[in-house]
Amino acid sequence: MLQPNFPKELILLMQGIRDLGGQAFIVGGAIRDFLLNKDFPKDLDIEVFGVEISVLENLLSKTGKLSKVGKSFGVLKLKLDDREYDFSLPREEWKTGSGHRGFQVRTLTSLAYPIAALRRDFTINSIAYDPLSHQYLDPFQGKRDLERKTLQHIGTSFSEDPLRVLRAMQFSARFEFRVAPETIRLCRKLDLAELPKERIFEEFRKLLLLSEKPSTGLETARKLGVLDFFPELKKLHGIPQDPQWHPEGDVWTHTLRVLDAASTLKTGTDSKDLELMLAALCHDFGKEPTTSLVNKRWRSHSHDEMGSAQTGIFLERLTRELPLIRKVQQLVRDHLRPVQLYNDRARVRSPAIRRLALRVPIKDLVRLAHADYLGIIEVNDRQYQFPAGEWLLEEASKLSVHERPPQPFLKGRHLLELGMKQGPSMGSLLEKAFDAQINGQIRSLKEALDWAKTMLPQESL
Question: What sequence ranges are listed for the domain tRNA nucleotidyltransferase/poly(A) polymerase RNA and SrmB- binding (predicted)?
């Protein structure tokens, strides 16, 4: 079996632990990802046996920058160059109350690795590796489950942290694994209501950013009962769509396809990609309350507006990041505009595109609308083209608003130079000038200054 390579300074530290009478193992996701032939992370988890925390602290403090924030839980964080290592002692945990803080922890350096690993969630995360002896420890047959592409919980302690249900959701998508039937049954019994929104959001973030097919995770979430806690998602299932425009099926099926399509349109910038993926997830939330049968055709009038409001409700239960929420809401609100403008392009004028660019970044909106389009069609090379998006980007580029919103030519300093006094009237005049610019009546700073001079007698000097 292939052996992973580790930085020399880490090997020296582990040799130092051995010289003190202890033993250290690389544990957790790094070993799992290595065995899956995925990128090896810079940050590693090391579990240390047979050495007390004070002795370990003394050793690590001589090597790099040491953080002792988690010392009471038997965890020390070491930063070396651009890498961070979590050194932890084996410990026992037991539930004492509700929430993720309702635990008691006791470090036991004499624990055997199989006993210490009982607190881990899935067998695939319980594999340890000793880089000094080049041996794997696999007490729960995690390598077998990696080969079987199966998520299998380890023991009854799994149910002590309901977050593990959401970890199953995102792992199933990232690795395209199935969840073992007995693990599904256990997950369906757990209550997510006690989880802080920050922890929930982090699992959704991993699902959306780290998986090529996030639809797999959402289907897993449905099987695990997760959607019971997110009615906006659950209600998408079974909502009909007009087969002429949506031959793929109901809104749930369409949303899954849009998510997977959006995943292929990521830019590599996490902040932008998260906005895109959340908007793809939420873009049709408005169809549940607006869908009705009109003249034997399914219609969802104003679902974009309704969806924006529903998106806000959904995301505010997941995160306190209000700027992110507002950006996603606006993407949802305008997700139909690229196609609408394209279909009416013979009559569309520059002001409509400028005003759209004021509300939402054009490139981001085109990516979302493109994903929405790909969620409808049966994809082949020809259909991957998105004429509406290409047209809108070209028109926005002509107006220099394809990468950022229009910037006002006229600013307060220009009015001061013309002799205008500061005050409410200055703000009012600047608004009028910018509105005229958006409407195409002002096309340069010179025209803006000429316009301002004609307006100054009517304003406060």
Answer: 177-234
